[in-house]
Write a structure and sequence with these properties.
It is a single chain. By secondary structure, the protein is α/β, with parallel strands linked by helices. It contains 15 helices and eleven strands. Helix 12 links the parallel strand 10 and strand 11 (about 250-255). Helix 1 (about 15-25) crosses helix 15, helix 4 packs parallel to helix 6 and helix 8 packs across helix 10. It is elongated.
Length: about 300
């Protein structure tokens, strides 16, 4: 099976979750090629139309898999290759993107949603919708003894370390709430996840006392899955699928947006001073299992298209 993946190429590198999923599909024996879009906004994307037509004219693909609504809209403007679109959240939740995503969802052969709410917002009533969250790499994220991880990172053994879920400048992650909840906790550092390689993040999650998610909106934050794979305690606002993921996991909590509520739960985690059973709870979300679900969607499209 030969797949063309269409995604934004405006960043210096491909989105990590798109890249990881593509690599996992290759490991399952699929042939993967990329068409990276240069340009922003509707007209910026549509300027890539003739380049796309040229690529599929001279290359033979069984299927196109577009990530995000605008990429999907571009993909559906050709009619020779069936199209599946994965909707990730901002393409549906942001007002400026919604209409383009809704149009693309009707023109594609089928859709994948990383969260159930996205299919509901786009009013997709195919039964059942393809709900396939982004996976995590269990070869990179796994439990390590906390003391060992701290020794490698040269962190103090007696200090408290809280990992913030993203970079501080990402507004949707709501770092102001995290600062409000942690500023008065003695001997405690809030760690910004910015500029680290995955191997380093694995060490950080294993060395930390907990992961703190204060986001205003999410669909399925991969960092939560990665933290669970490391048995790292989690405190999170009720966003995306976090509540579902941690439902049966010890020492993980859903909080309100009240900083005092978050602080109270942080102190509970500190007092317990225990890791979680997250590794077992998250095992079905590894990249291999997610890749197999995506391949099943591909096969269903091709069976109906032929």
């Amino acid at each position: 099976m030969r797949i063309l993946i269409i995604a934004s190429g405006n960043s210096l590198q491909l989105s990590p979750f798109v890249k990881e999923q593509a690599e996992s599909l290759i490991k399952q024996g699929l042939s993967i090629d990329f068409f990276l879009i240069k340009g922003k906004g509707l007209f910026g994307y549509l300027k890539n139309y003739f380049l796309l037509i040229k690529k599929i004219r001279y290359e033979e693909y069984d299927l196109i898999h577009a990530h995000y609504g605008l990429s999907g809209l571009l993909a559906t403007m050709q009619l020779s290759v069936p199209v599946v679109i994965t909707f990730h959240g901002s393409d549906v939740n942001m007002k400026k993107n919604y209409i383009f995503s809704r149009i693309a969802s009707r023109l594609s052969n089928t859709n994948i949603f990383v969260h159930q709410s996205l299919s509901e917002k786009l009013k997709i009533y195919r039964n059942p919708p393809n709900i396939i969250p982004c996976g995590f790499d269990n070869n990179l994220f796994y439990p390590i003894p906390k003391d060992k991880a701290r020794e490698i990172l040269k962190w103090e053994k007696s200090k408290r370390y809280i990992v913030f879920s993203s970079s501080f400048d990402n507004k949707i992650k709501n770092v102001q709430l995290a600062w409000s909840a942690t500023s008065e906790i003695n001997n405690c550092d809030l760690i910004e996840l910015k500029g680290y390689e995955k191997e380093q993040i694995n060490l950080i999650l294993n060395a930390a006392d907990l992961l703190l998610v204060t986001s205003l909106s999410e669909t399925g934050p991969i960092i939560v899955k990665e933290a669970l794979a490391c048995n790292c305690p989690i405190i999170s606002t009720n966003v995306g699928d976090v509540q579902k993921l941690i439902r049966n996991v010890q020492n993980c909590y859903i909080s309100s947006y009240n900083p005092e509520d978050i602080k109270k739960r942080i102190n509970i985690v500190f007092m317990k001073n225990k890791r979680t059973n997250g590794e077992q709870a998250i095992k079905n979300f590894n990249l291999e299992n997610i890749a197999n679900k995506v391949i099943e969607v591909y096969q269903n499209i091709l069976n109906n298209f032929s």
